[in-house]
Specification:
CATH superfamily of the largest domain in chain A: Malate/L-lactate/L-sulpholactate dehydrogenase, NADPH binding domain
Strand content of chain A: 15-25%
Helix content of chain A: 25-40%
Number of domains of chain A: 3
Number of helices of chain A: 11
Mean pLDDT of chain A: 96
Low-confidence stretches of chain A: none
Oligomer: homodimer
Largest interface: A-B, 89 and 88 residues
Strand order of the largest sheet of chain A: 2-3-4-11-5-6-7
Order of helices and strands of chain A: EHHHEEHEHEEEHEEHEHEHHEH
Chain lengths: 363, 363
């Protein structure tokens, strides 16, 4: 970014820092390590918005007592193939992995497992959970609802979160296909970057506080909203709205969590929701044993063929051709694991503030 | 449509006609009735492209022996929560309901059921299947891959079908939320309509045979491709591509069917795929018992609240505010059940051709 200085940190130093910060707030050691690992995974994979950059928000929420550092996570309902979990207002980075493991364990028993979660908080990158399933020869699904920032098509208000969905499929010789995507047209992080640089944003990303399309990032931040994938009716914005709604209902309503505009705030900077309709934030996890459907070797060979076939697509002019979902994150990880994580000054300022709050050393 | 005459047919007459046409080709009576019912459901719900308008394609495929009228549908693999089905090259309208029922039956037993299908053909509207699940207090999922027509982002060739996904959630006093959407930016049917009317199509729908963006519908038809939801990288076209890929892999690869550019042709007008990588077309069904996760009454009351909350969203300027997924189809059904189905001349010509092929009377 022009005019912004990047400082590179080894991933181990960031992981260690996060671990100690969670410990400081009373999160048990193994859970602190796990939460730190999920943040580190985001930084390694190049998803900067969901890594160490979010530690400040988690720390502030723990500091103000809004997140429970030692939750009693419990199962509310259960069948052989399903469970509903209450996260007791724990860190999503702690509750999410527990629920995901239950889904995978159920898949071991009856072929698939599906778990809803209420009473949780933001759980990091959705991709983390589906990578865990890959390690068990399962196809993992992960969804979550999040703090409202997206308008439904034809609406002028923030009603849905960026609600991501992730799913992954293993290859044999090829690396896995890893889909991990939010449901709006563009990431809020990209809009924030345009704001810092004083640049306009493309059409189709956002509306202003009156609900009018805008290319001014400040107009979105000042009471406007992001637009769903597809942006307008003509270009399929109703489909992006449907996708966001589906993820909201599976994560928020089916679990007994808050949904839509009532999802809890993620940092203390946001406005409190007008009412509570459930318990905390919600997630939705699925796990499917590959051998419950097909011979896993045959499946992986077909995935290799799928990947090679799609890579060999004739490129559109001015491009190098289609990429395979998961490629950019894997390439980032290959570089960052060795060279470290570049952090912008604003993030480092946040980390210094955490140092001041907790006494945990960064250097 | 300007210059095109509409003729209205009572739904019963269309249903009866389809039923007799399937019978004529040797499809058993109960299966013919079911297949006709799925087509009628599409016409009632206003999804004109998937109703009686498709009977000509099914008839041609049956007539040329490309679809098996009396398939031996069998289970290839099974666990308590999953199954893989081979449709023996039957009508998708016959194979799909069998597989969907297996998913729902498994949900009755272990909470959820997930079924992949290979060796099938086009199965009508995805929405049909999830409405069946609603009747059993289950949340139904339906996906299918389809004949290639969509380019992956940055690709210049047709590599994916319009690959729809459907899911439905029941309300208590409110009608259900029914999501049933294809994964490209726009429906091919809309492009066809522009072609007939000699009009340009909006930016973001299609590319020409060189992979360049085009607003000329003829340039898409002549070796071009539709674009995924999001259309361009800037506006999230990689996400639409991911969605189409996910549906293709779950329906096509996990089932052992053909996938991507190798999906079988839907009508004899299309070019044959270059090679076979599996068996027929693939589907993916899921069913989740609501009470496996949450009290169904509580869930339905929350869905009522969700619907009312989203309906009450402040409208964007120039709109009447957000609609709830399923509203347009339900409104169409309320009108068409009484007033009949308006058909354009081109569809009636197709029906006359079926009359000539089969001797089944339309009038």
């Amino acid at each position: 970014m022009p005019g912004s200085k990047l400082t590179v940190f080894p991933i181990e130093r960031l992981r260690e820092f996060s671990h100690r910060v969670f410990l400081h707030y009373g999160v048990p050691d193994d859970q602190s390590a796990l939460a730190a690992d999920i943040l580190a995974r985001a930084d390694l994979r190049g998803i900067d918005s969901h890594g160490i950059a979010r530690l400040h928000a988690y720390a502030t929420m723990l500091d103000s007592g809004r997140i429970n550092p030692r939750p009693m996570i419990r199962t509310i309902r259960e069948t052989p193939g399903t469970a509903s979990i209450d996260g007791d207002n724990g860190l999503g980075l702690v509750v999410g992995p527990v629920a995901n493991r239950i889904a995978m364990d159920k898949a071991d028993t009856v072929g698939t497992g599906w778990v809803t979660v209420r009473g949780s908080n933001h759980y990091g990158i959705a991709g983390y959970y589906v990578l865990e399933a890959l390690a068990r020869d399962q196809i993992g699904w992960a969804m979550t609802n999040t703090t409202k920032i997206v308008a439904p098509l034809w609406g002028a208000d923030r009603m849905l979160g960026t609600n991501p969905i992730a799913i992954a499929f293993p290859g044999h010789e090829e690396p896995p296909i890893v889909i991990d995507m939010a449901s709006p047209a563009a990431a809020f992080g990209k809009l924030e970057m345009a704001l810092r640089k004083g640049e306009a944003i493309p059409e189709g990303w956002a509306i202003d506080r009156e609900g009018q399309p805008t290319c001014d990032p400040a107009a979105m931040v000042d009471g406007g909203a992001m637009l769903p994938l597809g942006s307008t009716r003509e270009r399929g914005g109703h489909k992006g709205y449907c996708l966001g709604a589906m993820i909201d209902i599976l994560s928020g309503v089916l679990s007994g969590a808050n949904w839509g505009p009532f999802t809890p705030i993620f940092t203390t900077d946001f406005e409190e929701p007008p009412r509570e309709v459930g318990v905390g934030l919600g997630h939705f996890f699925g796990a499917m044993r590959i051998d419950a459907f097909i011979d896993p070797d045959e499946f992986k060979r077909q995935i290799d063929d799928w990947i090679r076939t799609f890579r060999a697509t004739r490129p559109a002019p001015g491009t190098e051709g289609p990429i395979i979902p998961g490629d950019p994150e894997r390439e980032a990880e290959a570089i960052r694991a060795g060279k470290g994580i570049p952090l912008v000054a604003a993030v480092i300022d946040d980390l210094r503030e955490i140092v001041a709050m907790t006494g945990v050393a960064l250097d």
